[in-house]
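Lecture notes, unit on binding sites. The following record was shown on slide 14. It pairs a sequence with flavin-adenine dinucleotide.
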Amino acid sequence: KRAIVWFRRDLRLADNPALCAALDGDFDTVVPVFIEAPDELGDEAPGGAQRVWQHFSLAALAADLEALGSRLIIRRGPSADALDRLIEESGATAVYWNRLYDPHTIERDKRVKAHLDDQSIETASFPAHLLYEPWTVSTRQNAPYKVFTPFWKAVRDRPVATPLAAPSELPAVWDRIGSESLDALGLLPDIRWDEGIREAWTPGEAGAHDRLDHFVDDVLGRYATDRDRPAVLGTSYLSPHLHWGEIGPRQVVHRVEEWLAEHGRDGDRADANTFLSEIGWREFAHHVLYHFPETPERPLDTRFESFPWSGDDEGLARWQRGTTGIPMVDAGMRELWATGYMHNRLRMTVASFLTKNLRVAWQHGERWFWDTLVDADLANNTLGWQWAAGCGADAAPFFRIFNPARQGERFDPDGHYVRRWVPELANLDAKHIHAPWAAPGKALADAGVVLGDTYPEPIVDLKASRREALAAFDQVKK
Ligand code: FAD
């Protein structure tokens, strides 16, 4: 008897319940397969930066499987057809996988399962991507949660299963079972815009564990304060690893709990709890997406369907390029372009700027992030954009509009973050770096800054555009 393990966004060997169940089952071999079928995911197919990640992550998984005596079989979709062929070639009687919760994937998996059931192939799916599956959490009225704090209160004390160990060896896959070459999938871009991503990250399970080790050993103890300072490495940088399932949330939580058991001081608990609540936001985002699958396109607060967005194409283009003349916004957008990542404080700032000061519809920002973030994740990105635009689950109230200059003064007080990503302003002193338009001529001249020449004039007046956004909001709020 043989089984197929269908890898998707669970590109890891440890804490992989589908793989473990197949290995524990009564099978003489287990065939690991990844099926490239972006068409099945519609608009949710990975964007450019994610595809780069996917390439290297698959390469890492293939090497890890080989090291244990197995092999990754890569096939092209449609998934049901690819599985049919592999079943025929291998004589497999079972297909196992780990569950995902995005609307297109759920629909595809249901179709594939029904197709396999029809042929009396055994199927089994497992929870690996989340701590709490979306249908296991509901309010007293048996409704989904729309507010984070009660959601988190309801789940945070539930026990988290101990992660499963990685197998120490794997059964061989016969040579006659062929695989598409990874390169032939064409995940890497023809024009090499991805060098910064390659330099900044190590996709794959080992890279994920290195990040977690570094974070727990050196950063977690100061997370509550440093997580908001974009100039320091104050967060875990686990988001793309979690998105591709190179590490699972149970492993992360388990590791944090071990650290707490070792350290156990009260102060540490605050840092750990703040971090765990961010993992909780990821759970919440998946809960909301599962229960409100229309939210990647439509506002959860339907009043915003009629919001008078500006349709400002030039504003959108300058936001994307990081040439708005607002240093914090430009720094964030350039970090994103260069590395496929943007610090959370900046994500909130640039999203507020786009949707409020430029009044560009949040879906445009969401799409840009989708294409450029290595951690682009339908659940987290949707929640983040609707939160920032003020139209989503537990969103910031619309009238709370981030002032990007003020954000810079508070969270990048020395200007290091802006200097790194906006080198035109590198010599401007910290006092003026977040609002060069208000700097005295001498300060600008000393720093070699000529507004409108070496660095753009601000694309909008922050105060006036804020007032206009509030007036537009008055139209929908009734
Ligand atoms: P840490 O602070 O170390 O947090 C640990 C983990 O918790 C993260 O890896 C992530 O999985 C989760 N997490 C943290 N904050 C959030 C949050 N607000 N919502 C959901 N999960 C969270 N995150 C993505 O993973 N993918 C996205 O596409 C994405 N788009 C966003 C868009 C906007 C407009 C905003 C405001 C936020 C978005 N986020 C997204 C959430 C957050 O910015 C990132 O998860 C975080 O910056 C990743 O860095 P980290 O791993 O170092 O985070």
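Take-home: The first helix runs from residue 17 to 24.
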